[in-house]
Amino acid sequence: MSFHHKPNKYVKNVTIKVQHLERSLRYYREVIGFQVLEETTTTAKLTTDGENNILTLVQPENPLPKERRATGLYHFAILVPRRSDLANIVFHLIDKGIRIGSSDHLVSEALYLNDPDGNGIEIYVDRDPKTWSWKNEEVMMTVDPLDFKDLLQAGNPEETWNGLPDGTLMGHIHLHVSRLDEAEEFYVKGLGYDIVNRFGDQALFISSGKYHHHIALNTWAGVGVPSPPKNSAGLDSFTIDLPDETVKDQVVSRLEKIGARVTEENEKVVTTDPSGNRIQLEYK
């Protein structure tokens, strides 16, 4: 999983807003399999190894339901280290009676579900990068049916479920944006990501270090859709880990050149993309 280590620019944490923290905590612990690292009356930091916070839940004041036709979160994607882990998660979800979607993307095998607020979740495992097919700097990805029979042979239905395994990471984030051309300028010219796949004029997949994607952007909620209310369920922010302060300075300079607002505090850069998606850049 070297794609999620320096010098790559990878998504380290996603913070989502929920309407009822207690309800969401129960879901993320019992269904998804997170552990609680820290908790207050309105926030919870979640982990899989007892040390690293990869998902944060926030209950805003006067919370509203998630907006369907707005920018923000399409899904965040949890990357498990082994195919057997994904298979065992399927057994666990079947045992819980949870309905899921699924797909074979060639580069990965993925499960899809929604939390109680409608926040999209992907749980996936990567195939060996040596098997990924690249042509003209683009990686081939598909939305094929997942072969559950073959996948489940890698797991053990008798194994006791102990939650998400150690080594689980925030693999990527997929966002609804208002306009794809504006998003491309921000994420490619500004943040410095590489385009690795174009899905017509509707979606864009970008990455660092030739990963299949650290961030995906789409206009499937509608071209020109607005940002959601600040107190609605959905995306609060996400954090990208930068390699070092030199790269941070380069990123800040590029963002300012394209007119993006940038602030800095406590070794973090805070900015917002043209669709209102808030991003924190760490460079420790």
Automatic annotation (TrEMBL):
PROSITE patterns: VOC. Signal peptide: none annotated. InterPro entries: Glyas_Bleomycin-R_OHBP_Dase (IPR029068), Glyas_Fos-R_dOase_dom (IPR004360), VOC_core (IPR037523). It comes from Alteribacillus iranensis. PANTHER family: CATECHOL-2,3-DIOXYGENASE. Keywords: Dioxygenase, Oxidoreductase. Residues 10-126, 169-284 form the VOC domain. This is Catechol 2,3-dioxygenase. It comes from the Bacteria.
